[in-house]
Amino acid sequence: MIRKLALALALTLAPVAAFGACTNPVVVKDGGNSNVSMSVATNPDGNCEPNVQINTLSLYNGSGSTTHSAATTNYNGVTTSQLFALNTSGNAVPTTVTVTGTTAGTGQITHAIATSSGTNSPPSIVLYLFSGAPTLTGLVDYSNYAGPYLADITSGNYIGSLSCGNWHPTNDGKFYSECMSSNGIFGPMPFKALNGATTINVVESIAGAYTPIASETHTYFFSTSPDR
Questions:
Q1: How many Å is the maximal CA-CA distance in the chain?
Q2: CA distances from residue 54 to 12, 95, 134 in whole angstroms, order as listed
Q3: What is the spatial distance between Cα 6 and Cα 185, in angstroms, rounded to a whole number?
Q4: Which residues lie closer than 8 Å to 82 by C-beta, 6 or more apart?
């Protein structure tokens, strides 16, 4: 009798996976008693377990950069800011920065930092943000750029701007600036990507006198989170 009880107990405690492979999905009940599909996987000892993936996110999950032309002429953006761009003819091209969340999703920019490959500390720069490609017809490196065109604002394409000043030297001789919202909104800056896109567009202007090096690059790092 004792041997029968021991055998029954062993069969009761045996892993379900020993009798068959894990089959996806497994239907479970949530707090509202509704059916929810859960992914399972076979662990090393042959048992089924929930297939949970942990994503490791860096503080800055979006980045992009703008490279200046080969010119080393002074920017004189004291009275009017000037465009920082690669091209010296045609139309300037905005920089794209990937944002987290679903395609065409909305979210928040919670932190931003800019770095420079130049040998001089930059003056204040302004990063103008757009959902889609902004109006840059006929604009090149050093073109006056006081801000977005009215059409970009009224169409809803313009998101806002970030001001990057108070540049600090890095330990290896470059420079960085922690950027602040300059659109009058305190706290995170809301954004919206275009339908079918997971990026926003950035246009940089130099807001002060500055001598760049040839092909100087400014890189932007954004910390973004999607709306829930």
A1: 98
A2: 32, 30, 37
A3: 70
A4: 75, 76, 142, 143, 144, 145, 205, 206
